[in-house]
Specification:
The protein is mainly α and 122 residues long. It is built from four helices and no strands. It has one domain (2-121). Helix 1 runs antiparallel to helix 2. The termini are far apart. InterPro entries: PhaG_MnhG_YufB.
Length: 122
């Protein structure tokens, strides 16, 4: 049974490493802060999840030790990564960081410009 657990844990850790590697490539290759934060938050969170679950499986099956610390790390990564990516994108948008040249239409900009004009009148 230890060989099976090592294979399962190794595959999970390998999948996590692949996702983390793809996240690093996304941070380098993507054109603007919005798409980069998407790569950083989504794929790196999944990479960390697979790596930590693989480690948890290994320690539970092979060593017989259940680590609550690994569960807490998984929980806090899932709690903090999406929130921080959202806040980074929001602050970049509010600071007028331009979007990459694409076919994306910025519909929120028209709404925000209208709200700013009304605030200026009051």
């Amino acid at each position: 049974m230890s060989v099976t657990s090592e294979i399962v844990a190794g595959v999970l850790i390998l999948i996590g490493s692949i996702f983390s590697f793809l996240s690093a490539i996304g941070l380098i290759r993507l054109p603007d802060v919005y798409t980069r934060s998407h790569a950083a938050s989504k794929s790196s969170t999944i990479g960390v999840l697979f790596t930590l679950v693989g480690t948890l499986v290994f320690f539970v099956i092979h060593e017989g030790v259940f680590s609550i610390r690994l569960l807490l790390v998984i929980f806090f990564v899932f709690l903090t990564a999406p929130v921080s990516a959202h806040l980074i994108c929001r602050s970049a948008y509010r600071s007028d960081v331009p979007l990459a040249k694409s076919s994306v239409k910025d519909e929120l900009k028209e709404v925000l410009v209208g709200e700013n004009r009304e605030e200026g009148r009051q």
